[in-house]
Each structure stands twice: as C-alpha cells, then as structure tokens.
Amino acid sequence: xxxxxxxxxxxxxxxxxxxxxxxxxxxxxxxxxxxxxxxxxxxxxxxxxxxxxxxxxxxxxxxxxxxxxxxxxxxxxxxxxxxxxxxxxxxxxxxxxxxxxxxxxxxxxxxxxxxxxxxxxxxxxxxxxxxxxxxxxxxxxxxxxxxxxx
Length: 150
Prior knowledge:
Elements: H1 2-9, H2 13-28, H3 37-42, H4 47-75, H5 79-101, H6 106-122, H7 131-146
C-alpha cells in the first residue's frame, strides 16, 4: 500500500506496476507447493471439481492481497490501473493450470510459467488464448494421477 502512495505522490506509475508484479509473485508462491500424490488420489472430488476448488481458494487468497491496493486505486481514481490489477488474478490461475500440467516436474513448471508470462506480456496477451487447452490438459493430468493403479 505504501508503494502505491509513493507512486501517486511522485506521479510514477511504474511503481504501481512494480506493486502488481510483487502481488503476482506473492499470489503464485503457494501454487509452487505440490500436494502429495496420496492427497490427490484420496480426494472425494473428481478432477474438474478438484481444480475448481484450487482455483476458488487461490482466487480468494489473491483477492485478499489485492483489496488494499484496489481500495487505494479507487480513492485516487486510477481506473485504468484497477483493470490492470485483474491481471494478477489471471497470472495466479495460469500458474495453477501449469502446476497440474507439469505436476511431475517442478523445475519445468517454473520455466514454462516464466516463459508463458513473458510471452503474454511481449505478445499483448495472445498466449492467453491457450487457456482452454491448458485447462483440458490439467484435467487430463489430474485424472491420470487420481485414477492411476500403482
């Protein structure tokens, strides 16, 4: 919150963008922690519902982080910045999808995540069109994990 105040005080929007990057990193950190295979196998939910609850919990946690910044942006009338703040939610959801696609390899998950986000920024969000495909692949991976007979 203090960074947003400093940005407004010095009329420097780059500080607000830095705040958004910090919020994105903080909101993505819990997604890099993997559940054990047994936890996924023993869940009573099917893969779609399990992924939905992962999304829901991550969104709630991210919104808690974003609310103070959102309120400050509202009071200083930075409407365009409020829309950019929604990108933090998208980054969090993409990270969860990639987590389950590359469940077996944490290092590959992190590399693909950085590559995907950098391409989204440099290509003006075009890679975000792949989100339905990522969702389908994440569901397939969760089904494989949940119903594997080892």
